[in-house]
Amino acid sequence: MTIKRIVSLLLSVFITSQLVYAAEIDCRMMYTNMDWWNKYQDEKLAEYIQQIVNNNQDLKIAHIRTQEAQEAVKIAVANQLPYIGFDGTAQRTFHSSDNEYGSMMIPSYKQSQFILPLTASYEIDIWGKNLNNKRSAKKSLDIIKEDERAAYISTISNFAADYFNLIKTKKLISNYQKMFEIQTEIAEMSELKYNWGLCGYTEVLSERQAVSQIKNHLNNLKEFEDLLKNQMIVILGSRTPSDIEVNSFENVSVVEVPQELNGAFIQYRPDYQKMQLNVEKKGFDVKSARASLLPAFTIFGTIGYNAYQTGKMFTPSTFMSQAGISPNIDLFTGGAKMALFRISKLGLKEALEQYEKVVLISMQEINDSLTSAKLMKENYTNGTEIYNNQKHKFELAAQKFDIGAMSRLEYLKHEKELLQVEEEEISSKIDYIVATINLYKAVGGVDYLKGAAGIVKEDV
Questions:
Q1: For each of the chain's 460 residues, which pLDDT tens digit applies?
Q2: Which of 197, 219, 350, 386 has the fewest CB atoms within 10 Å, measured from its CB?
Q3: Residue 196 in contact with residue 279, Cβ under 8 Å?
Q4: What angle do CA 358, 363, 369 make, to 5 degrees?
Q5: Are the C-beta atoms of 87 and 55 separated by less than 8 Å?
Q6: Which of 163, 158, 153, 160 is nearest to 28 (CA)?
Q7: DSSP for 39-70?
Q8: How does DSSP classify residue 102?
């Protein structure tokens, strides 16, 4: 082999490996769908998603399983090709017994024997058994690819939901800390009123109780904040956890929700794709099982040397070759092959029923997610309106306080009431964002704002 040929071969292998690597990168970016996540206009979230893609163990495991399935396809392809092997023998008979063949006797002897054959065999795939096995393996690969895509959609969506819930929790903690300070001051002023005989002791107890309730709620929020961070660190796949930085609540952007969705969106869901591929796979399995009931024909051949002396090992007199065809059929297996054939047919029927079930479940989940998202949007709109009205009332109260027409105690109660109303506005906004993420998951990780007709199937 010339140097030019060797260089050409090495270059071909390098280019092939680079193409495979580029294809894997393309799949990862396609599964990630950053065009969708950029709609939330949050750079920190985008950075975390990239970290998840690089480090998350679930995504790595899903990719390894895809690679394993790719190797299984190669095995199925190899079964369609001829087999060529070398099964040599080098032996020495030091002392044999007398061998009698009727009236002829061969006395004891000593000798060496060297058999150096190349053997080849090829099963003629008349009925398409190996071909259907290969097609079935390819469908299995496509199914596992859908599992990998589902892992990307689920893992990233779960992290994004935790991310926005963390934003909400931090904002609520800030509000409750202010509310705690306000309520503490209100309780102190109520005690002064009681000491001056301006209110009953019941009012003092109520205000003290409100301080404890706010403190408990604040502690619960801090606990929930730590739980969210712990979950997010696991999803990020980092053994050296650091504090999770999030965007401010005021800079959070929302994504619109359509009034209705086309039922065609179910075709982009991984579970729907899996069931469709599974039906096709089971169909190939049935064909392969049917072919196993028919005769098999194998072409075989041997070429090589059979020598008894090293000096004559590669001489014409020791050369041997043979070829033939071997028909094979199992005449009686106790019904095992027919049972396997019936099992494969039942597997196809089961796959069809699973497909129908997934269609119904997919429609339900899409409709449920859409209904929830629309209600969360309405709640957010109403919550914003209520908050703006309450804010206006507080501004009027602040003006009265500035001119001395309102006491400090009344002013603090108005400020506390504003913070309580703002809590609803904060929760409704983040709940709305989380609902849009759930809808994104329900439609199979595609941009539902484009409409089903605007999404290219190959982009999924």
A1: 455 554 454 455 344 444 444 445 566 778 889 999 999 999 999 999 999 999 999 999 999 999 999 999 999 988 888 899 998 888 888 888 888 888 888 888 788 888 889 999 988 888 989 999 999 999 999 999 999 999 999 999 999 999 999 999 999 999 999 999 988 888 888 888 778 777 777 888 888 898 899 899 999 999 999 999 999 999 998 777 677 899 999 999 999 998 888 888 899 999 999 999 999 999 999 999 999 999 999 999 999 988 888 888 888 888 999 999 999 888 888 888 899 999 999 999 999 999 999 999 999 999 999 999 999 999 999 999 998 998 898 888 888 878 888 888 888 888 889 899 999 999 999 999 999 999 999 999 998 888 655 554 444 4
A2: 197
A3: no
A4: 120
A5: no
A6: 153
A7: GG--HHHHHHHHHHHHH-HHHHHHHHHHHHHH
A8: T
Q: What is the pTM for the complete model shown?
A: 0.84
C-beta of residue 221 within 8 angstroms of C-beta of residue 426:
no
Question: Do residues 259 and 118 lie in contact, with contact meaning Cβ atoms separated by under 8 Å?
Answer: no
Token pair recorded at residue 51? 């970290």
Which ranges constitute the DSSP H helices of 237-335?
270-291
Q: Burial code of 132-156, b = ≥16 C-beta within 10 A, e = fewer?
A: bbbbbbbbbbbbbbbebbbbbbebb
Q: Mind listing the domains of the chain with CATH numbers? A: 17-80+128-294+350-459 (1.20.1600.10), 85-124+296-328 (2.20.200.10)
Q: How far apart are CA 171 and CA 180, in angstroms?
A: 14
Structure tokens given for 75 = 């095995």
80 SS3 class = coil
- Please report, in angstroms and rounded to a whole number, the separation of the first and last CA atoms in the chain: 45
Q: How far is CA 361 from CA 128, 232, 370, in A?
A: 36, 29, 14
